[in-house]
Specification:
The chain starts with a strand and ends with a helix. The longest helix is centred in the C-terminal third of the chain and has 28 residues. By secondary structure, the chain is α/β, with parallel strands linked by helices. Strand 6, helix 10 and strand 7 form a beta-alpha-beta unit. Helices cover about 55% and strands about 15% of the residues. The protein is built from 18 helices and ten strands. The chain has a six-stranded parallel β-sheet with strand order 7-6-5-8-9-10, with helices on both faces. A four-stranded antiparallel β-sheet has the order 2-3-1-4.
Length: about 425
């Protein structure tokens, strides 16, 4: 089986493309079912965030599997394959494994070392398990990637003081308005990004915040977490009034369509100057909003200048994290390589166990009925112990063998010496 990652990120595609490929959690089940229907794709998981969309697969025929994923992405996004392909990256085997671990560790993020991506990888694994997308290999790979991401955060300083998308947005807004003193700020959305946004705005002395959400309960719950600050809450029904009353607006709702655009904002704008910072993907703000006089719009791709100021000082920390990830990758690859030995080991154990049982029965029949069950149990345990000790070293050495040619020769030797007929024997022969 082969591992592949097919996707795009802030490094390969602008937000206009990324938003078309975004797969909300509610659509993941259908996407996994569709991809799993490919005869070559055995396992699949999907990671969709504001800065990336990745599909991880385990496939028997890697070229066909990758092609099927690309066709799905084209159909899902409505982008023609020849237009989509330049934005996509494809990584195979060990490169795919390292990529996933770098992602979980925050080394591939727009904001180097940001922590939110780790919870997003956990969510991707949970959805893939829930919708029967992952099997033995991807389940292990995603869990190992999560473990690697945790190690990066606990064993290096990369996550210490790392900015997030929300903090970068707050920083960019402050650069534009110079001070949040007496600045009226409206936030549309009350999820994790909104919580981080409120936290960073308050740290920068913002004191007039209006928080709107689809449901008032969630907005109130978020406002209650910052009890020392007077935060006005409401629902998105009052969105336009809140926007035109604000100096700065942040949007971070889960809507898959723009909620602010020229058609609904221009009639109520009255020439007021408004700065709108859209940190959602898909975007909450249509690009045509910039056609309104005195309205200035920014999206996640505009954060790169802010983030660049933070990056250089963190590159040495990233090098430490890379060395740590190399260990995790090697551990996973050792485990993956050991899977090739399973049929041979199973066949050898089965054959030896059959011989043990046959010889035990012969001995029991010669000993006669006076031989008690207690004594039989002792002899049974003795024979099992002998078999296990004899098989332990060859099995351990076979699993630990990293050189593929040496491992194949060892398996073939075992198969010939013990006259084993296994699927792996045919596989070894086919590679020669």
């Amino acid at each position: 089986m082969n591992i592949a990652v097919v996707g795009l990120s802030h490094q390969t595609a602008p937000v206009e493309v990324r938003e078309k490929l975004s797969i909300p959690s509610a659509q993941v089940a259908d996407a996994i079912a569709h991809l799993s229907s490919s005869p070559t794709i055995a396992e699949v998981s999907i990671l969709s965030t504001c800065n990336r969309l990745e599909i991880h697969i385990v496939a028997s025929e890697i070229e066909i599997g990758v092609r099927d994923v690309m066709r799905f992405l084209s159909d899902h996004s409505g982008i023609e394959p020849n237009e989509l392909r330049p934005h996509l990256f494809v990584l195979l085997q060990q490169d795919a494994v390292m990529h996933l671990m770098r992602v979980a560790g925050g080394l591939d993020s727009l904001v180097l070392g940001e922590g939110q991506i780790l919870s997003q990888v956990k969510h991707a694994l949970s959805l893939a398990q829930q919708h029967k997308g992952v099997g033995r290999i991807l389940n292990r790979l995603l869990k190992d990637s999560i473990k690697a991401g945790k190690r990066v955060r606990t064993e290096t300083n990369l996550g210490t003081g790392a900015v997030s998308i929300s903090s970068a947005a707050a920083e960019l807004a402050l650069m534009k308005v110079e001070s949040f003193d007496d600045c009226h700020i409206a936030i549309l959305g009350a999820g994790k990004m909104a919580r981080l946004l409120v936290q960073h705005l308050i740290s920068k002395r913002a004191n007039k915040i209006t928080l709107l959400n689809r449901t008032i309960g969630r907005a109130n719950d978020l406002a209650a977490q910052f009890g020392d600050v007077d935060i006005t809450t409401g629902t998105l029904d009052g969105m336009l009034d809140a926007v035109v009353a604000a100096d700065v607006v942040f949007t971070c709702t889960s809507s898959t369509e723009p909620i602010l655009h020229r058609e609904n904002l221009e009639p109520v704008c009255n020439g007021s100057q408004i700065m709108v910072f859209d940190i959602a993907v898909p975007r909450n703000v249509h690009s045509n909003i910039s056609e309104i006089d005195a309205v200035f719009a920014f999206n996640v791709d505009d954060l790169k200048a802010v983030v660049a100021q933070n990056q250089e000082s963190r590159r040495q920390m990233a090098l430490e994290a890379e060395a740590l990830l190399e260990e995790e990758v090697e551990g996973f690859m050792d485990w993956l390589r050991s899977l090739d030995t399973v049929p041979t080991i199973s066949s050898l154990r089965s054959k030896v166990e059959t011989i043990r049982e046959q010889e035990l029965e012969k001995a029991m029949s010669r000993l006669g009925s006076e031989f008690s069950e207690k004594h039989r149990g002792v002899v049974e345990a003795l024979t099992r112990g002998i078999v296990n000790k004899i098989l332990h070293d060859p099995m351990t050495q076979l699993r630990a063998q990293r050189d593929m040619d040496a491992r194949d020769r060892a398996m073939e030797t075992l198969q010939v010496l013990f006259n084993l007929e296994t699927a792996s024997r045919k596989s070894v022969a086919s590679r020669k």
